[in-house]
Amino acid sequence: MQNHPSYPVLSQLLAKYPATGGALFQVYNDLTLAQRWTHVEVLDLPACKRAAIKGQRPTIDTDRGPSICVVLPCSLSESISTSWLRAAFTSLDPLPSEIYVAITSEDTSTVYYKISQGIVKPPV
Q1: Which strands sit side by side in the sheet containing 38-45, from one edge to the other?
Q2: Residue 7 CB neighbour total at 10 angstroms
Q3: Distance (Å, rounded) from C-alpha 1 to C-alpha 10?
Q4: How does pLDDT run along the chain (124 residues), one tens digit per residue?
Q5: Can you give 45-105 as a three-state secondary structure string?
């Protein structure tokens, strides 16, 4: 991992949160290399005992333009709760209307779930 080009960007938070380092490393590389996000930054969320990733997601909808998203990496073996999600929302400034939880597995699969604050009507 130390020889990977993304390691210098992540090294400080990988050392600070070793239990969630694998998920952070996997999601960061998926977003930057496979999904081609730009303006990516890694955020420290001490209330959640992990790092989050904020960046600009590319879009094919030219009317909307690129959107800024926040992703919270975690592994499939972790337990998460509504209080943990609430802490993630309140740790971010400005307060986002939604975040994505990226759940990683040992086979390097990553699934992204969009989590919104409160009750939100799904798009039709």
Answers
A1: 38-45, 50-57, 67-75, 98-104, 110-116
A2: 13
A3: 10
A4: 788 888 889 999 999 999 999 999 999 999 999 999 999 999 999 999 999 999 999 877 666 666 889 999 999 999 989 999 999 999 998 888 899 999 999 998 999 999 998 877 777 7
A5: EHHHCEEEEEEEECCCCCCCCCEEEEEEEEECCCCCCHHHHHHHHHHCCCCCCEEEEEEEC
Q: What is the residue whose two structure tokens read 């960061």?
A: 28
Q: Tokens for 53, please give them.
A: 């990733």
Residue type at position 48 = C
Burial of residue 99 (CB within 10 Å: 0-12, 13-18, 19+) is: buried
What would the two tokens of residue 111 be? 């699934």
The tokens of 30 are what?
A: 């998926």
Amino acid present at 115: I
Entry pTM: 0.89
